[in-house]
Write a structure and sequence with these properties.
globular, alpha/beta, 55% helix, 13% strand, Rossmann fold, Depp_CoAkinase, five-stranded parallel sheet, ATP binding
């Protein structure tokens, strides 16, 4: 079974790529974001350790992670971001390993592991190839402002705390440009899927 790691910076359009691959090409997606939401939902596997490390004020009254409060903290404090990732990544990796093993046991030929922090978390070891979604910074800023209802400086700050596309490109086997419309993206993905299936 071939496992393609799909990654890209915030507002690069990685989720759109993932959706097209799943809906139009029928490729199973292992979604790291969904797994990370599950482990910080009420009853999630990471909550106790987050409360121990950051304090119970970072949990919602119903028991899940207060994502807005935590997001504000890690935007301002890189050490807090590293601490949170140190809790979440091993738990997420355990889930990912189990899901990939299940697909392998079911005889799948090709799956995609959609993971924003694939490279930063050194999770490329789970995949055979890395596909990076790249998008012009100005377009990413615009998308973030519209999506999250935030000012330009906050959007740029969110982008700046992540690893740059230039640094990520050193790890990428495939680049997916997402500066155009969805139709252009769909056509590019169609060609890419054929390469994945044939190589």
């Amino acid at each position: 079974m071939k496992v393609i790691g799909l990654t890209g910076g915030i507002a690069s359009g990685k989720s759109t790529v993932s959706r097209i691959l799943r809906e139009e090409f029928g490729i199973p997606i292992v979604d790291a974001d969904q797994i990370s939401r599950d482990v910080v939902a009420p009853g999630g596997a990471a909550l106790e350790r987050i409360a121990e490390s950051f304090g119970s004020e970072y949990l919602m009254p119903e028991g899940g992670l207060d994502r807005k409060r935590m997001g504000a903290l890690i935007c301002e404090d890189p050490k807090a971001k590293n601490r949170l990732e140190g809790i979440l990544h091993p738990i997420i990796e355990h889930h990912v390993e189990n899901i990939i093993a299940d697909y392998r046991a079911r005889g799948m030929d090709l799956i995609v592991y959609d993971c924003p922090l694939l490279i930063e978390a050194r999770q490329e070891r789970f995949v055979d190839s890395v596909a990076l979604v790249v998008t012009d910074i100005a377009l990413r800023v615009q998308r973030l402002m519209e999506r999250d209802g935030i000012a330009e400086d906050e959007a740029r700050k969110k982008i700046a705390i992540q690893m740059s596309d230039d640094d990520k490109e050193r790890y990428a086997d495939f680049l997916i440009s997402n500066d155009g419309d969805e139709e252009a993206l769909r056509e590019a993905l169609s060609r890419l899927v054929m390469r994945w299936k044939n190589c």
